[in-house]
Amino acid sequence: MLSHTDLKKGIRIILDKEPYEVLEARPMKMAQRRPVIQARVKNLMNGHVLEQSFHQGDTFEEAELLKLKAKFLYAHRERYFFSKENGFLERFDLGSEQIGLQTKFLKPNLVVEAFVFNGKIINISLPIKIQLKVIEAPPGIRGDRAQGGTKIVTLETGAKINVPLFVKQGDIIEVNTETEEYAKRVDEK
Predict the structure, then answer these.
(1) For residue 67, pLDDT beyond 80
(2) Contact at 8 Å (CB) between 118 and 137?
(3) Which residues make Cβ contacts (< 8 Å) with residue 124, sequence separation at least 6?
(4) Residue 136 contacts by C-beta under 8 Å, 6 or more apart in sequence?
(5) Edge-to-edge strand order for the sheet containing 66-76?
(6) Pairing of strands 12-15, 2-3
(7) Which long-range contacts (CB under 8 A, 24 or more apart) does 178-184 make?
(8) Disulfide: which of 46, 54, 142, 156 matches 4 by Cβ 3.0-4.6 Å?
(9) Angle at 122 between CA 18 and CA 75, to 5 degrees
(10) How many CA atoms are closer than 13 Å to the CA of 118, on its beta-carbon side?
(11) Do the Cβ atoms of 74 and 81 come closer than 8 Å?
(12) Predicted confidence (pLDDT) at residue 127 exceeds the cutoff of 90
């Protein structure tokens, strides 16, 4: 059992018989009151995010989630289709509301981690860093500024992110999927 002080980013708990992941948790103390943990939690079954306060004495069961490797196949009408990494015939699909913002970094044959709760695949998790090709990039125009500038580029998955001015069309870059930010340009061999 977990107490309210054990709630930290990434911890998975059971609330109302459904698995939730803690997105952020911060302690809050108001004058002459007991400390409260203000948390944002995401329902792993349907993708809804809630703001919730947890008080002293609250206890939670840790969510027992099995993990398996899966491969992204394709997307069709807000549904995303996957197969188990080694079993191409064992397919499953998830809706965009379940996966959330991670959908903009899914590309065919990307290996992801699928979460299984009570025998049912409920969600996926992308690798923290993935490599994507820049398909559209405006030219980097330098003005008279002291710091390096940034520009918005379009990646092969359709996502748009900020990158430094030196990134050009055709480059392969590494993207952090948690922060949705540019990490580095990958050297081509």
Answers:
(1) yes
(2) no
(3) 70, 82, 94, 99, 102, 112, 113, 114, 115
(4) 153, 154, 169
(5) 91-95, 79-84, 66-76, 111-117, 120-125
(6) unpaired
(7) 178/128, 180/101, 180/104, 183/129
(8) 54
(9) 145
(10) 6
(11) yes
(12) yes
**Length of the chain, please?**
189
Residue 148 identity (one-letter amino acid): G
Mean pLDDT of 134-151: 76
Bridge partner residues of 20 (DSSP): 13, 43
Structure confidence at residue 145 as a pLDDT band (50, 70, 90): low
Q: Tokens standing for 119?
A: 């025998």
Residue entry with tokens 């109302």? 16
Give the strand order in the sheet containing 49-55.
Answer: 2-3, 59-62, 12-15, 18-28, 36-43, 49-55
The token duo for 160 is 């748009």
